[in-house]
Amino acid sequence: MNPGPSPTFIRFFEWFCPPELQEFILGDLEEQFFEDQEQYGHQKANRRFVWNVIRFARPGIILRRKLNTQNKIHTAMIKNYLKIGYRNLMRYKFFSFFNIAGLSIGICMSLFIITHILNELSYEKSFPKYQSIYRVASTDWAKLPPKLAPQLKAEMPEIAEIGRLYFLYTKVAVYNETETLIENPFYADQAILDIFDFEFVEGSAAGALDAHDKIVITESMAARVFKPGEQRIGARISLYSEDFLTVTGVIKDLPSNSHLKIDCLASMEDTWVAQNESDRWSGVSIYALIDSPEAAQQVNDKMLDFQIRFQANLQSEEDIRTGEDFYEAHPITDIHLTSSREKETEPPSDMAFIYIFSTLAVFILVVVIINFVNLYISQTLNRLKEIGIRKVMGAQKSQLIGQFLTESFILVIVSALLAIGLSILALPYYNQLTDIQLSIGELFSPSSLLLIGVITVMVGFIAGGYPAWYLSRFGIEEGLRTRQLKVGKKLSLRSVMVACQFLISVCLFTATLIVSKQMDFIFNKDVGFAEEEIVSVRLHGELWNQTVSNYDKVRNELIKHADIVNMSVTSKVPGERFGIEALQMGDDPDVIIGSRYMRADEHFLATMGLEVLEGDSVPRKSTGIQYIVNQSAATNLQQENLIGKTVTNNPGSEGKVIAIVNDFNFASLHIGVEPLTIQMPSEKRYFADYILFRIATQDVRATLEKIENTLHEFAPGALIVSKFVDNNMDELYEAESSMFASFKIFSTTIILLACFGLFALFAFVAQTRKKELGIRKTLGASVSQLLLTMTKSYLGILLVAMIVAIPITWTFASEWMTNFAYQVDISWWYFVIPGFFVLILAAVGMVGQSWNVAKSNPVDSLRDE
Questions:
Q1: I need a surface site. Which of 153, 380, 698, 808 has the fewest CB within 10 A?
Q2: Cα angle 510, 437, 749; round to 5
Q3: Higher pLDDT residue, 864 or 791?
Q4: In Å, how far from its chain's centre is CA 558?
Q5: What's the per-residue H, E or C state across 83-106?
Q6: What is the sign of the dihedral through the CA atoms of 516, 517, 520 and 521?
Q7: Number of structural domains in the chain
Q8: Same domain, residue pair 354 and 314
Q9: Is residue 536 a contact partner of residue 567, using CB atoms and an 8 Å limit?
Q10: pTM, entire model
């Protein structure tokens, strides 16, 4: 085989010949080489090949030199743009600071808002099968009777799996005689493991909950219960009574973006919950695995007929249809934002918050973009002479546009980098303030980074493109003659944009004030009992046994302490959601109402400090059942002389009404006071879940220590968990509190950024009208007249914006207030004072900028002509 051309010559050819020409030339040269090689031999063919290469060398080298020269020119231009951009950044430090600071804060706040929104929208999506998981509930209730689940599975072939969860309330896990507080224990069916597909780190889902003595725990619970290195699978722990459960698996902790908060899952097999055959008691959450939305729709289409059959012993078909509390299967992804059912596992959020936060994000981005453009234009007003000189030196319009774009992108990129650093520093404080747990990974997710990129490019092009296009249009003579722009219609558009900023600022200021007043009203409202003086202690295990078995002895020992005013045992504490049961007149079965229920002893009224309107203010211990009702329940019963009459809620629970108490707020102020029945059974074993203490508040810590020490005398080593009832009530407003904390941060940010925008406009006006004011001053105008000339038109625009803000904020306040049964009175000054406050800030900035121009020497502004 004949060898080809020398590789050295080939490399030489590739060096001088541009890549786009090589494929057209090299093939011809190689073909000529092989022809010469056959005719003249290898050596001569190589020499002729070199000669042919040289023939092409001249045009190729010229072309390469030209390309290299252009690349050097482009590189030099970019370096020049960067150098001039840096110099202008340092020259106009004041404007640069406001530009970078405002944009950095805006990007940082937008990043938090978007991350917060994405976190809210991501609930339940960590479960592998989340698109196929549905919760079966009624229109009004999140929980249903336990026996409904197997019956529904038998009648609905579209349901692949169905499982139940029952919350066990706060319990204590006991292992090796050591107690550990467990906040979220559940009974669960084996099917729950298959539906949610929890990730096991030890053990497996197969058969993990198929027997009554099995339990699956989370990693965090395992870390609290077991010591490092201890064997966890097969260990025996107790959650309730004397029963011990075998650990069959350890699963990863559930993410925070789920309505389920689980510490452990104990098997529901053969428990009283699984064996409960009541049609009335709605106590379990039911989850179903349905393969497709179409199958789920088929289930819902058949659900009403199923409900009519299932509730045949409770209601007629007509009552079910008119009651409009229908069974349905709804996606679990809808629970967090759109469900407001009774007995939710945790208080849900609200889709309205998503809309509010999305609006705030848009407001922030609009405000920072307007601010950046205004400030950047103000900064470039003194550069017309520079533009003229550059045009004299041969600069093209495209080069001027490139210069301005480069400078704006320098500012934007620096702002974006600072925003990232600011976000990292602010993240712990934001989490603490809003009571959510965003991670750095969530903060800088691909969506968030895309947001930063879009903002960077958008602001960079808008901020640099507009002044670049506008200023580069000026001719050489006009650019060299003056350093100010003429004021025309362009300014009016910019004024309208800043007026919109002012409108946004006033609306947000007013909304923040109204929300603040409402939240203060909620937290400080008199709820009808001494909430700040009442402490609850949850009963469990040995503490429960000793308290119930030796109640009188325990109470007498605790009441000895002077700082313990009174003590009672109850089934519920205010702030918890009480169940609804029937209350029926014993002598008139047709008189029946639905009422919230709790159980308590005879000391409950005195401990709570409730006002007795009728009947016994100090109930006596009785061998039978006694009833106390609140004013709303008494009104609904429509009975004269209710005291002493017999009432009941089910067979065998007949008792006398011994007192009517005031309507106190035992639940959230989102709703009014509902009918409440306080049942006082003689046997505490069936209702004692809490001890309530009414204490003196002089030395709270010492009093709590006395309570703990005394209880330990009866139940040594027991875990004592105490909690003030007012904290329990405050937790009812966690969603609003979190929203309000974020709302205040973002609203304050927008108001401050809008003030930056106002400052930019006034700086712009001062620069553009400098020559006009110089002429006016030469003709005899006073400083006050000049100030009035500068400010009157803009103060009018801002005043109109303030007036427009009033109906907008009134509409928002009225709509938001509908979420509360108890509302603060909205006074006129809530709308007027924020507007005038922002107006004063604007006026101060306007007068400050105008004063500098009005006091300046007119010669300085006229000499350039």
A1: 698
A2: 30
A3: 791
A4: 44
A5: HHHHHHHHHCHHHHHHHHHHHHHH
A6: negative
A7: 5
A8: no
A9: no
A10: 0.76
